[in-house]
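Worked example

This section walks through a single chain of length 399. The input is the sequence exactly as stored; nothing has been trimmed or padded.
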Amino acid sequence: MLAIVIGYFRRLNIGLLSIAFAFIIGHFLVGLSASDIIGGWPLSLFFMLLAMTLLFGIAQANGTLSLLAGRVVELTGGRRRLIPPAFFLMSGVLAASGAGNISICALVSPIAMTVSIRQRIPPFLMAAMVIAGANAGGFSPIAPAGIIGVTLAEEIGIPGTGLIVFRKQIIAQSILAAGLYFLLKGHRLTQCPEQDPGVTAGRINRVQKTTIAVFVLVVGAIVLAGWNIGLTAFTGTVVLLFLRAADEETALKAVPWSTIILVCGVGMLVHVAQMAGGIALMADFLARFMHTRSAAPIMAVTGGILSTASSASGVVMPTLIPMVPAIVEETGADGVRVIASIITGSHMVTNSPLSTLGALAVAAAGQQQVDQKKLFKDLFILAFAGLGYAALIVWLEIV
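Given that input, the structure is written out below as tokens.
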């Protein structure tokens, strides 16, 4: 928690702080060796995250992802009421294909804000649709957040959570998106007489066709043939670079190194905390207020509160999911359901402008004639409303 607080107020990467805290706590307080501390670096997770983000960095660099986004706008035929759902679906499909929620929000949010201004659609509605869609697809077993969730669950002895959590997130985020769509009167948007030449997709070129073909092969090999995610993605990356689908230096710059360090650094600190008994101690404290039915909603709210000012997948999940076995033992709750509730709660408040996805939306709005202060306030309110929504749908066992 101290690493999160310092990182937030001093604007330092929490992963780097976590590595330093892992050394200080592990070596000086717990007496762990350097090899024990370094052994906490999640090497397999690091390999998979690097491979997937590098592959999609190529697609971002050569305009393939932007092209796909433009096609979605064209498919609506100028019917404004269809544009927000189209962006929800597009964000979800692209995130599920392996890009992940952060990458897709970074790519799609600027396009969504441009469309919102030119088609006179409320920016808040467009931002919410993109974030909800990205979160719905972001827990695909081949997307970074999905990989993190599955890896953390397997490490505590709860396998087979991937598709279950993915399905629950699609349900939760779809209900949220539908509610916001009608609440913000998206269904009442009329035909816009103006076309949007700024975001229409151009003719697909040879490089983009090649990129799409390699993507299809990579996803098929992972999902259908069960090939290793990291090795398959790296192979696809090498093929695209060999075919000159993008410049290697540009693709490497597109890798979100700070996010990868954040995720893996926190993982190292959690490893040290586990060896020191800290995870079990915190789980015992939370378990005092839980019983079989309330365990999941309480963990959903806990995850949501932590996520308002920190990374859901990089900080909250690696902190809370390791507590699940102790909570299950104390309360008798279902482990998979508790894991799903942590993920649901933590990702219902990623609309917060203090969190990565909300911040990306506000940053994108700054490039357009959008009232950033109003969007900031609206997203902040939505994030805290998401806490109550997450607790409700978990309590009612909708997810």
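What to look for: The mean pLDDT is 85.
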